[in-house]
Amino acid sequence: MVKKSKQKRPSIDPRVLTTPRVDALLQQYAQGELEKEALEAALRALMAEVGHGPVLDALLARLERAPDEERDALMLIISDLKSPEVVDYLWRQVRRPRELPLDVRMITLVVLRQMGEDVDISDPGRYFSPRDLHPEDFRSAKAVMRLGLHGLARSLRQTRTPTEVEMFMLRLYRFAEEEGGGERMLQEMVKEGERNATELDADLLRAIAHTAPFPPVRRAAKEALDRLACIGIRPVHPAVIALGQERFYAAYMTDPDHPWQQEVIVAWERAGGAVQALLFLIDFGFPWRGGIKDMFPTRELTPQEFQRDVVEKAERKMGMRLYRVSLARAQATLTTAVEVHRKYGLPLPPEYREARYLVERWVLHPPEEAIAADTTPDELGDRPLVPDYSKKPTDVFVGDIEELIRLGITPPFVPKREGTRPRTPRHRR
After folding, report:
1. How far, in Å, CA of 372 to CA of 62, rounded?
2. Do residues 166 and 260 both lie within one domain?
3. What is the rounded distance in angstroms from the CA atom of residue 352 to the CA atom of residue 292?
4. Is residue 20 part of a domain?
């Protein structure tokens, strides 16, 4: 009896199956069977299994053949996979001649920019050989940059809460600012949204109207929304509709006549009763001279957590009383502080720039109706509304030298007091 030899089944390199596996995941996501977080987790797990290259190659190949609406979502998905390995691989793909079609390489540059890389799409010659570029490609580059900006906007409906909408719009505003357009570009988006006159555009306009850092842009978006409503076009996305369902909750500050520092807290109540606060530390020493030395936003808190973990904790840490004040007083105090930064060319804290969309909306330019509706008994009502810092000391204290170096400022000779003043710890999240 002849024994049959077992036939060995050929082994298949798992990388060969990467593209169909990526396509299957994207299909599940498109059909609503996978949430965005689950999709990203599955793609990261696949990268860990087969390597970053095969997964990114599959995604870039999908970008090449995808229609515009799918391309926008893919760009956002790839940008959210950011890691040093992913960034490095994408840069190598962009710079490798004839590795990808030029339009996909352009889109990859947009993705890299969304990841925070230093990319100037207006100068493709920085990234491509002149032999690869033709005059029409420069027009293509500008179109791709617009695609990246508007692609972010069309992905707005992936958000689930007003807070997610705000964070999404923050990315959009950063993108516009980095492109060099800032307020002008957002005004153009408002005009384009009104011209397109779709529910998607109405969603975007409402998001801009409630979150844009520029008051003229917010006004323009509200007016465009009113005109669209007259022809029956209104926002429909629940997370966007929930925007604006917030009200001023409370403001506190320490004694403005303190010689060294002042803390200011401004809190708003979001839909559902959660309270979020912005904390500012104003320093009267050199070089701040009444500017904002430190700032941070809290997470969403219950009213009890706000009172215990923000107000009472700040009083213990500062060793000073916090006075309940009106929104108008907090606005005047912080507007004056921001003006100090403009006057002396001082940088604002990084946390301020990150939360600028909230600072503008809740503190510097709150709705007029919010100020009018504020009936808070102002415990500092006997003091001037606009603070006067002219009598504050401007000495350089020993403890400030490190801060001066950190800010890149070389102080002129200023007489020092003997010893050091008590230093209040910087805020920490």
Report:
1. 53
2. no
3. 9
4. yes
Angle formed at CA 235 by CA 229 and CA 241, multiple of 5 degrees: 120
Tokens of 226: 């009113």
Q: Are both 131 and 36 inside the same structural domain? A: yes
Q: Please list the residues that pair with 275 across neighbouring strands.
A: 269, 301
Nearest of 174, 166, 246 to residue 206 by alpha carbon: 166
pTM over 0.90: no
**Residues 6 or more apart in contact with residue 319 via CB below 8 angstroms:** none
The length of the chain, given as a count of residues: 429
Where does a domain end: 241, 262, 286? 241
**Residue 219: in which H helix or E strand, if any?**
helix 215-230
Model pLDDT for residues 301-313, shown as the tens digit of each residue: 999 999 999 999 8
Q: Is residue 224 part of a domain?
A: yes
Give Cβ neighbours of residue 186 (< 8 Å, ≥ 6 apart).
173, 176, 208, 212, 214, 217
Q: What are the tokens at 303?
A: 């009213």
pLDDT tens sequence across 177-227: 765 667 888 888 888 888 888 888 899 999 999 888 788 898 999 999 999
Domain end marker among 241, 261, 280: 241
Q: Which amino acid is at 353?
A: R
The sign of the torsion formed by the CA atoms of 297, 303, 309, 312 equals positive
Query: What pLDDT was estimated at residue 395?
Result: 54
Range of the domain at 180: 159-241
218 and 254 belong to one structural domain? no
